[in-house]
Request: fold
Amino acid sequence: MSRKPAKRAKTKPAAKTAPTVRRRPAPLLPPGDAQDAALMFVITVLCFLACLSVVAALGADRAAGGWRGALAGSATVIVRPKGDETPDAAAARAAEALAGVKGVAEAAAQEPAKARALLKPWIGDDSVLDNLPIPRLVTVDLDPRAPATAQAMSQALTAAGIDASVDDHSLWLKDVIRAGVLARAAAAAVAALLGCAAAAVIAFATGAGLTARRDLVSVLHQAGAEDRFIAGLFQARFASLAALSGLIGAAGAAIIAALARLAGGGDGLTPVLPLAWSDLAVLPACPLIAALVAALAARVTAMRLLKRMV
Amino acid sequence: MSRTADIRDLNAAVTDPLHEDPIVRFSGVGLRYGRAPEVLSDLTFDLAPGSFHFLTGASGAGKTTLLRLMQLDLRPTRGLISLFGRDVGRLKRSDLPFVRRRIGVVLHDRRLLDHLDAFENVALPLRLAGRKVADYAADITELMAWVGLSDRVHAYPAALSSGEQQRLAIARAVVTRPDLLLADEPTGDVDHEMALRILRLFVELNRLGTTILIASHDEELIARSGKPVMRIEGGHLTLSDPAP
Reply:
């Protein structure tokens, strides 16, 4: 008597029946229930908030970059005339000396009227300004590719016998750079936190799903399913749910960002947070990332729980 | 004529001398739930390849527990169980699915999947084994005709009668032509004619090489089968020869 399946004859047929035509096997996990709808809502909200934080970070980064470029691309020189030299002459000489420094694109002495206009809000009446020794300013535009250093400009001015101070805005630049880094880090932290929250929700839902479908898991085990196959069912279920949630969340965030962009014109909603249409290009990654996070959370949770089952 | 055999006699009685390794081997197996007294005590027996036995005993005697031990659904509290020549206690978790695929199980509560139709329920073990639907569709249609469900292929379990559900569970258990078939009251909810038909199916599977153990209260069916009977009483196992 042979036990080998390969040697067995077919089970006795009552009558040869035409094979049933089927397109594809039915899903082994039952269709989603009300809990899936609630879970989808939560994941959608998390994805929406994560997308908004990323778009806000891009806007903040763009603002910081703009300020950084403006500050790094220029310098201000305060000229103090010596002896009998007039302030205008000293400023003109300083501009001429600076124009010859490598890395300076353009140097121009500021008009006295402009200097008075800058001081007026702080000092007030013109008559007072007439009696004050107003320093003359030279504005310097630097070569963005290889800007001149403050030290090089100071040396050039000293060599020309001019008493002047060079302000290359480095003090403000550091703050702006720090603000940009903080904005990016904060947005990344918020997005990561939301991702962790989504993973935790998925893990909880997977645990609940496995517990609620213990009978199904038992049948699958008994029929010879491997743990990874069963975990794969939950993984696929929650990954597709998260992908759809991510799509809806990203679409919602895209609508908000587009409205903000349209409302703010070329500068975005406010000059502080300039948004660009290209910022929306990152949003399609949301469904993919959401699906990956959900798949990982579901798989790890399911494998851990399945190992506790016989 | 019927006799009660010693446990050691039982070994000799059910082991086919032509085969070295029994399909199932129990050596001093005991099982208790928590701190309760042992449900099964000192079970020692072999089931030879191609053997056919009925398992009977009073309700609560431990028939289902014994079947669950064989289907790797429970672990013994003592003793040694081997299936297909492999010590169950040494099996890695990753090995269990491949051992289980060689076992067909008909549970008393059927455990059908309500969201799958009859065809999909029967096809489940084949699907899990990686077979394509095009390869097995004809076999399943044929098998469902054999268990009298040819007109219920697309019905969901909830729409089936108790007897139909039982036959569906049987079809699912035998669809892979397992090496070992364990059935817990497989004819409990079917009429006499269908019970005989199912018995013939089991006999035919057995003739093709499947080792079969059926837990049943149906004395008439057991007598009609002419197969040896393992009886559990007080946690111990005895063997009765087939009735003449």
User: Anything to note?
Assistant: Residues 1-19 of chain B have pLDDT under 50 and may be disordered. Chain B has eight helices and ten strands. The CA atoms of residues 22 and 48 of chain B lie 5 Å apart. Chain B touches chain A through 54 residues (CB under 8 Å).
